[in-house]
Amino acid sequence: MRFACAVAVMVFGATAQAQGVATATIGVAGTVKAVVSGPQTGETVGAFTVTKVAGNPDDGVADGRNLCYRCKMGQRPVVMVFARSADEKLAKLLKKIEEEVEEHQDEKLSSFVNMIGTDAESLKKAAADFVAKQGLKRIAFVVPDDTKDGPPDLKIAPDVDVTVICYKEGTVQPNYAFQKGGLSDDAIAAVVAASCKLVE
Prior knowledge:
Layout (H helix, E strand, L loop, with lengths): L1 H13 L1 H4 L4 E3 L5 E3 L15 E5 L11 E2 L1 H5 L3 E7 L4 H16 L6 E6 L4 H15 L5 E5 L17 E7 L2 E8 L6 H13 L3
Parallel strand pairs: 5-6, 6-7
Antiparallel strand pairs: 1-2, 3-4, 3-7, 5-8, 8-9
Helix pairs in contact: 1-6, 4-6
């Protein structure tokens, strides 16, 4: 929603924690610990193979199909997420992103979530259950063939819970890395602001 974009941009500009969340998370005691995960600003998002599990029934990809979903996105502006756990904070983030995807259909803003971990079958079931519970309609959930940490070329950090890579025409713009518990409201607002900037 354009109003949501305006609010998110204001929060992103005004909050130091949100501004720096691409490279840092705030610990419980208020100390800053740098975290880096995934391709960084200006780098390219390469091809990798996944199995679609659930979500976005209008993308033309049947659940269970193995493909390069990143390739299917082509040159679109995309908010790509790698997540190790599907909890309420992730749901809150994705619902905000889904609002932007809905608002910016003309600009072809898209999003998909890669669930990663040690057991592919458990991830597939958890992803399908999460999508059904949260009622997500415009965001696809996939499980990469490189299940544990995602494709090696993307360098998803093993100690990071959620990595958000915003890219357009295959090139990363902002990148965000969150350790477990790091998805604060300010962090979510920062990601929403970044998704808005993809379509400016």
